[in-house]
Amino acid sequence: MKISEIILLGGLSVFSGSLLWGSLDMPYSTDTTFGPGFIPLNVSIALLALIAGVAIQAVVRSKRDVAVSSGGTGEPADDAQDVVPQTLGVLMLGGAIASIAICIYAMSYIGVMIPLGVLLVILSWRFSGHGFFKSVAISLIVLAVIYLIFSVWLRIPLH
Predict the structure, then answer these.
(1) Where does residue 144 rank: exposed (0-12), middle (13-18), buried (19+ CB within 10 A)?
(2) What is the 3-state secondary structure (H, E, C) of 118-142?
(3) Cα separations (Å) of 39 from 6, 18, 47, 65?
(4) Are 158 and 112 in contact (CB under 8 A)?
(5) How far apart are CA 115 and CA 143, in angstroms?
(6) Percent of the chain scored above 90 by pLDDT?
(7) Is 7 helix (H, G, I), strand (E, B) or coil?
(8) What residue spans of 70-131 are helical by DSSP H?
(9) Does the N-terminal or the C-terminal CB of the chain have fewer CB atoms within 10 Å?
């Protein structure tokens, strides 16, 4: 899986999970028609199922590629090093989901900028493979731009 796919699927997972959580408080149906919780609940379940399908497909593709490259013996061949380990991509997807969810949860307690900065460093450093100092520098630049746009120009508080 590409890094962009991992981050997109992680973000969509957190979004659909929060949509699912919020839709559980709404009535699913009324006496005569669908209730306000019908669409969000079904859409969030369908989205989570699609994301799980993509993750399962990535693991199956990884195992199939290793089997094909090894000639069916189950042992890695010389060209097996060229096979992208899709299982690692699925683990990275789980890490991205957890990082995004923790960041969103922390935003309600300590503001937007600190959790967003930590999330940017984690995504850049661990998932994109940039060096730690490069990740910190990029994150500081992005945070400065976000601060200038929202807090200074638009006057929207970020805390």
Answers:
(1) exposed
(2) HHHHHHHHHHCCCCHHHHHHHHHHH
(3) 26, 14, 12, 38
(4) yes
(5) 11
(6) 14
(7) helix
(8) 86-110, 113-122
(9) C
Which among 25, 20, 55, 11 is positioned nearest to 40, based on CA atoms? 20
User: Is 58:1 a contact under the CB 8 Å cutoff?
Assistant: yes
Residue 61's Cβ-count burial label (10 Å; 0-12, 13-18, 19+) is middle
Within the chain, which residues score under 70 in pLDDT? 1, 65-89
pTM beyond 0.70: the answer is no
- Residue 68 exposure: Cα atoms within 13 Å on the Cβ side: 8
Question: pLDDT tens digits, residue range 14-43?
Answer: 888 888 998 898 888 888 888 888 888 888
Length of the chain: 159
Burial of 78 (0-12, 13-18, 19+ CB in 10 A): exposed
Mean pLDDT, the chain, rounded, equals 81
Per-residue pLDDT at 65: 67
pLDDT in tens, 129-144: 789 999 999 999 999 9
